[in-house]
Amino acid sequence: MFGLGMSELLIILVIVMVIFGAGKLPELGGALGKGIKNFRRAAEGKDEIEDK
Q1: CA 46 to CA 40: how far, in whole Å?
Q2: Angle at which helices 25-44 and 6-20 cross, to 10°
Q3: Are 28 and 20 in contact (CB under 8 A)?
Q4: Nearest Cα to Cα of residue 26 among 18, 17, 37, 38
Q5: Do the Cβ atoms of 45 and 39 come closer than 8 Å?
C-alpha cells in the first residue's frame, strides 16, 4: 500500500489523532469518502444534468 509499512501507518495515525483529536476522525473519514465519491462521479461524467 503505497510502499508504507505497518509502523509508518501507525505513526501517521498517531499524528492525525494528536492534530485532530479522536472525536473528529469519523467526520474526517466521512468527508474524505464523500470527496472521493464525488471525484469518481465527476470523472465518469454522471455529474452532468440531462435534459428530458
Answers
A1: 9
A2: 110
A3: yes
A4: 17
A5: no
